[in-house]
Write a structure and sequence with these properties.
By secondary structure, this protein is an alpha/beta fold. The protein has four helices and six strands.
Length: 129
């Protein structure tokens, strides 16, 4: 309970086979894909949660934060503040000036104070890193 864990599945087909979903949860599936991609390149992968604000992925290199990533299917008016604020909290905590929000197909740059957030489509992120 002090350090709850997030669970990811390498074979996302098992999610549909093993659960009964009333709606498609594409955001969760996208988060699984990004996790798998990041896990292939590092073992130092964590998430950040403070004051009920969360950043999905904190990639460390030699114990130092390297990349901060938030994942959502679509950044919109309903989730924008939650996604951005969780990432900004992690950016400030780890003293990182840049973070990423990975979406299905959106591309943008958001500036909040001294924080730069790159909104990147998943296909671009997966191909470039």
């Amino acid at each position: 309970m002090l350090a709850p864990k997030k669970v990811y599945i390498y074979d996302t087909g098992l999610i549909k086979a093993g659960t009964v979903l009333l709606s498609e949860n594409y955001g969760y599936l996208l988060e699984n894909i990004i996790f798998t991609h990041l896990r292939r390149r590092t073992k130092e992968l964590f998430y950040f949660n403070e004051n009920n604000r969360e950043c999905d992925f904190v990639e460390l290199e030699k114990g130092q934060a390297k990349t901060l990533i938030q994942v959502c299917w679509n950044l919109n008016i309903d989730n924008e503040e939650r996604e951005i604020n969780g990432l900004i909290d992690a950016m400030r905590y780890f003293k990182q000036p840049k973070g990423y929000i990975i979406t299905f197909d959106q591309n943008d740059i958001i500036y909040r104070g001294d924080c730069e957030i790159k909104v990147v489509p998943a296909y671009e992120f997966l191909a470039s890193i």
